[in-house]
Amino acid sequence: MMGMTATEKVLARASGMAAVRAGETIYPDPELVIVHDGYIASCKAQLDERRINKLFDPKRVMFVTDHAVVYTTPQFVERGAAIRRAVKDWGVENFFDVGQGGHGHIFPMEMGYVSPGTFLFANDSHCSNNGAIGAVATRTGTEIVCVLATGTLWIEVPFTIRVNLTGRLQEGVFGRDLGYRLARDFTNGTYGVEWDYRVLEFAGDALDHLTLAQRVAICNTVTEIGVANVFFPPNEAIIAYATERARRPFTPVYSDADASYESQITVDLGKLGPQVVLPGAPDRATEIGEAVGRKVDHAFIGSCGSGMYDDLVVTAKVLKGNKVAAGTRLFIVPGTVASAKRLVDDGLMKIFQDAGAIVLPSGCGPCTKGTMAPLASGEVSICTAATNSAGRMGAKDAEIYLASPATVACSAVRGKISDPRAFGVRLS
Amino acid sequence: MGNLNTVLRGRCHKFGHDLYTDVQVMPYKYGALFPFDAEKLVPHLFEEVTPDFHQRTQAGDFIVAGRNFAQGKSHVQGFLAMAALKLNLLCESMPYKSYRGVISRGIAVHRRCEGISELVNDGDIIEMDYATGRFLNVTTGATAQYAPVQKDLLETMLLGGTGPMLERWRDANLNDVAQTDA
């Protein structure tokens, strides 16, 4: 029998089957179901309307609060109250309210709820972050309501593209730069392969040089083009990290040597420079030289794709002893409450404040329709947002450029889009 | 499949390749204006391609599209309008997220009808047996054999989507609710 990919193995186990194959429809049984604050109250209303008054298993359900964490509108206050009523009615124990946990695509890994080999459902597409630790998280969108009631949902087993990485990222180049470049080169046909609902499974010697934060950034950036998922085989360092915090035993899962990949591509990290994504769509990456010099009014670093502690450390290296440029505002959004606390303990908070940056509460930050730190008409932002479509962070005619935390921080200090390799500080 | 009729027959409305969800299927501005009001969305379905398209259809008609139908964002407004008009869908391919969106709204869909664009003309009467994959162009006599649609997915489409399926699940699994109903 031909071998399976790691994703197929995780899905087979979750479905109680010896094997599954790409293209097959299955009903996997999740170890965890994560729902964010944008969907909880609406799920409760839908199930109440259908007189379904209990969850399939409250112990396996986690509610997180990352989209609206400071209630900037009366509607958000009401929604927060509705969420807490739902938590009580349904008996959900793993409820991370405002100010707890942090971003739901990060803290479950940091706190050991998600480990290598875990299978989970989540409503939001950026649950693909969990592939960084070697887990498989499937996005359901509004159909999460079916999972909450019945405990499962049909999914097709996705085909897998193997992405072989060679070389090493150069100084000033980060996981986000690779993700942006991949997003562009899949959608513009450079690789000549289908990407819709495919898993990107990374492989190659270069993987050992990629930290969990780098892996998260890569998972995050390629998600927007419509891939099913991203998977990184966990190395020793990742397994050690996961073991320290795991809440239950776990078994890392790897693809078989004779696993069937739909296609394969190879990318040399050594040839990659910093990327900037032009406003309008997340697959519009360009070499940073094309954008250098563009004046920026607004910058933000963090949230689901670049809010790991390592990202904040890189940011601090840039900001230390520097000031955010006059006329530019810089927001920093730690991914988790634990990272925010550590900023204080390690002295990074002082560096940020001395630089004139504003540290926001953990969560999505400005990346949720500009409910926090938005953009005015005609303004320009450079940031680590998940995507950059018109109106994503406020005014529809504001321009949103995407880049790595290093590029964003350098640009905030200079007041214009700036190449981190020319900043004069060692960042990697 | 119980009593569900899996053989559907209706008039063909033929579209081309690469239609965007937020452009040709339903301009996104309407989704922003009245996201879940099917009655208001219906007049704008496919208006970029065929003005007043909704007036040319009747329940049971088919949208027949080429490759990559409903690409781009997977917003549901176009699908809500299609469901309200009780339209069926055959296409050569479509993104997975859109496929899920269509099924969850209760639209009978087959997304792997390779070459179907060559087998139909706008206005033909066509017939699809979703359970067997047998396609017939009643007007021209052309036939094709596609893969069957999996039984459980077909049930979801024909019963009206996620909502009715949840109610069926409730009646079969939650005894206390069923007793309350009685």
Structure description:
The complex is a heterodimer of chains A (428) and B (182). Chain A is built from 13 helices and 18 strands. With 428 residues, chain A is α/β, with parallel strands linked by helices. Chain A folds into 3 domains: 7-155, Aconitase, domain 3, CATH 3.30.499.10; 159-271, 2-Layer Sandwich (Aconitase, domain 3), CATH 3.30.499.10; 276-422, Aconitase, domain 3. A 5-stranded parallel sheet of chain A has the order 4-3-2-5-6. In chain A, helix 2 crosses helix 5. The longest helix of chain A has 17 residues, at 74-90. With 182 residues, chain B is of the alpha/beta class. Chain B has a single domain (7-181), classed as Aconitase, domain 4 (Alpha-Beta Barrel), CATH 3.20.19.10. Chain B has 8 helices and 7 strands. Chain B has a 7-stranded mixed sheet, with helices on one face. The chains are: A alpha/beta (428), B alpha/beta (182). The A-B interface holds A 25, 46-47, 50-54, 141-143, 145-146, 149-150, 154, 156, 196-197, 226, 228 and B 74, 76, 95-97, 100-101, 104, 150, 152-153, 156, 162-163, 165-167, 169-170, 173-174, 177, 180-181.
Summarize the structure.
Chain A has about 425 residues and is α/β, with parallel strands linked by helices.
Key terms:
heterodimer, A: 428 residues, alpha/beta, Aconitase, domain 3, 3 domains, 5-stranded parallel beta sheet, globular, B: 182 residues, 8 helices, disordered C terminus
Q: Gyration radius of chain B, to the nearest Å?
A: 17 Å
- Number of discrete helical segments of chain B: 8
CATH class of chain B reads: Alpha Beta
* Strand residue percentage of chain B: 15-25%
Q: Tell me how many strands of chain A there are.
A: 18
Query: Which CATH top level class of the largest domain in chain A fits?
Result: Alpha Beta
Q: Specify the helix fraction band of chain A.
A: 25-40%
Number of structural units classed as domains of chain B = 1
Q: What is the rounded Rg of chain A?
A: 21 Å
* Poorly predicted runs of 5 or more residues of chain B: 178-182
3D shape of chain B: globular
User: Into how many domains do the coordinates of chain A divide?
Assistant: 3
CATH superfamily of the largest domain in chain A: Aconitase, domain 3
Q: Show unreliable segments of chain A.
A: none
Q: CATH topology of the largest domain in chain A, which one?
A: Aconitase, domain 3
What is the name of the CATH topology of chain B?
Aconitase, domain 4
Largest sheet of chain A: 5 strands, parallel
The strand line-up of the biggest sheet of chain A is 4-3-2-5-6
Largest interface: A-B, 21 and 24 residues
Instruction: Tell me the name of the CATH homologous superfamily of chain B.
Output: Aconitase, domain 4
